[in-house]
Amino acid sequence: GFARVMRGTQRSLEIAILVSFIATVLGVTIGAIAGYYRGWVDALLMRFTDLVLVIPLLVLVAVIAADFPKAPWYSVPLILGFAGWPLLARITRGEFLSLREKEFVEAARALGAKNRRIIFKHILPNLAGPIIVNATLTVAGAILTETALSFLGLGIKPPEVSLGLLIQNGVSAYNTRPWLFWFPAAAIVLISLCVNFVGDGLRDAF
Question: Which of 36, 119, 142, 197 has fewest C-beta within 10 Å?
């Protein structure tokens, strides 16, 4: 039982980190482009962001799970990552709208720096704090989301193991072997608490 919890914890962390990486890269890139270029580029990207926000994640995952019942485990973090970037995109866009008018950006532009260099070398380093904090907290959210999806039978499927799948299996044996439920549940709580503490610490540090 303990070995399966350790294996499930490993897989759940892999999923959460992959979700955070995909969501952060997409959110920062789209938000940076929208906030820096403004105009029709901003309008187009923000309308696309609004569209992604209103897509019900549970329905999307259910449809994909039904169409591809033997999809590999990494299909779950790919879906969650591609659906989880809009919030960070909005945060990044707002910061870019403010920072692009600062004196150091005007100075870089006057010295002939290209837009790509201004975005990645001058503005983005000033957003390291919010980006890192958001990425850290996304890990905790991804673990809870994966747990819920796997518990509903829409996430990780056997023979793979995740904490959500272990909880689903442990519910049926709760009356006779309650540790099969409580061990993975405790692991989820501890991981989420630790990640949130790290995120709060990073927020204070930055």
Answer: 197
Dihedral over alpha carbons 69, 20, 167, 1 (to 10 degrees) = 100
State the SS3 of the chain: CHHHHHHHHHHHHHHHHHHHHHHHHHHHHHHHHHHHHCHHHHHHHHHHHHHHHHCCHHHHHHHHHHHCCCCCCCHHHHHHHHHCCHHHHHHHHHHHHHHCCCHHHHHHHHCCCCHHHHHHHHHHHHHHHHHHHHHHHHHHHHHHHHHHHHHCCCCCCCCCCCHHHHHHHHHHCCCCCCHHHHHHHHHHHHHHHHHHHHHHHHHHHC
Residue 114 main-chain phi, psi, to 5 deg = -75, 160
- Per residue of the chain (206 residues), give pLDDT as tens: 677 888 888 888 888 899 999 999 999 999 989 888 888 888 999 999 988 888 877 777 777 776 666 777 778 888 888 888 888 899 888 888 888 878 887 888 888 878 788 888 888 888 888 888 888 888 888 888 888 887 777 777 777 778 787 887 777 766 677 777 788 888 888 888 888 788 778 777 76
pTM of the model: 0.84
